[in-house]
């Protein structure tokens, strides 16, 4: 997923106490006067939302507008894998667990959502049981049951030919998951036998191996309930049934989504959501520069949450007054370039190492917006993920590349030159600029890479995430940005390094890396109960991956967000890549 820095797991008592804390929305850095001040966040100061809630308010009404430069992979909670959609989807889709709204790493606190408490493990962590809250209802007033959660997991993980965009952890780890064909092919009422629903409020997951971080897994929107009778497969996105505080009033594919209050949402069943705005509008395919202008005018929030464009960044940093309205924080992400091990000659480690040594990472950092947008990276794990250990296998003077060593590795690979293609997302100017900087570095050592641009919304479904496509198009190098699916080494590494995660479409293991030792270490780690021992295994995986040179770490991503004036309850959360938590944002505007 594109986002999640980390924190160690908190206790259930601390999490529950945090949910009930009124300070979440009343003790912000800057209090909004509901009657007088539309600019309550103006004087909050730089990075204020990374420390506390800015412009805290309980004012209801108005319209909150989000804008995105492309289209998301999907609004379907069971068929998405972007951090901003995990964030936004909680407004209309409640998973079993979720992350508490809170500043910085406080936002990584895992709390119950549909479930009344955290999961109860048994059988050494191979069985997990959850009880649903009482009184849960869909937008039409019908009851939400454990069977709907079971079905949601089945459709999102076991029908990859229909819904391929989200992760497939449940398919990988549930007992019998490798044999179950999914609800669209399986017409029996039983479904997957390793998910049991003994009554309407209990759901039990039986795993084939111990999974000590399972509470994080069920925080994915894939556990948000879906009534089977209302499911339309890939077309469910056109008529999503809400379990959250908002429901869809309209949905125009590729253009706009409009959400309004769900009248059958009951605050008594939900200690997290506040239902402040009357309406939420999501506008798609808005020019990136236009988004910046709208944000600065207080008319919108950048849904993607990747930060302002280069020209806007220079404008905001030009004075202390303008900088006071920004938030700059680590996004818990790694910006990197995957080296496709299935595209020759990158099936040879020496050719991959030639790429590693060739790249001037400072030029890449500059292209991305300078140090304020990320520190030069040398490991797979970012510094704020457990298991990180400082290391630089392909060190060069000033991080500017080592042409001599690159050519040495190229010679060891049996090559004097290589011709390949590099992919990047067409609607991400900074990613294109970074890819261009890489192309210039590679050219100096005899590697001729041509840029191929593809849209974000289909980057994984149709292009970079389709192994057959990348091999046919000779795409040996793939631009990527990655954040943990949940705040742990496993949540960061599994979907980009484990061979079992490689898929025919929607693939995020872009290197197609399938190392039996790494696969085994990942399995061992997730079954290890002791945190320190588990984190040591993540460090080993990082080192092995770098030795195999299957991806090039470029920068440890940082985001520079502009706070839109008049918007309330703004808090930058580590749980969603430094983005503002979208759960309770409101507005003082009419």
Automatic annotation (TrEMBL):
Keyword tags: Signal
Domain named Solute-binding protein family: residues: 109-501
Signal peptide residues on this chain, from the entry's feature table: 1-32
Alphabetical list of CDD domains matching this protein: PBP2_clavulanate_OppA2
Keyword Signal assigned: yes
SUPFAM superfamilies assigned to the protein according to its UniProt record, in alphabetical order: Periplasmic binding protein-like II
Residue ranges that the Swiss-Prot or TrEMBL entry lists as coiled coil: none
Keyword Repeat: no
PANTHER family with a match to the protein in the record: ABC TRANSPORTER SUBSTRATE-BINDING PROTEIN, PERIPLASMIC BINDING COMPONENT OF ABC TRANSPORTER
Name of this chain's protein: ABC transporter substrate-binding protein
Originating species: Streptomyces siamensis
High-level lineage: Bacteria, Bacillati, Actinomycetota, Actinomycetes, Kitasatosporales
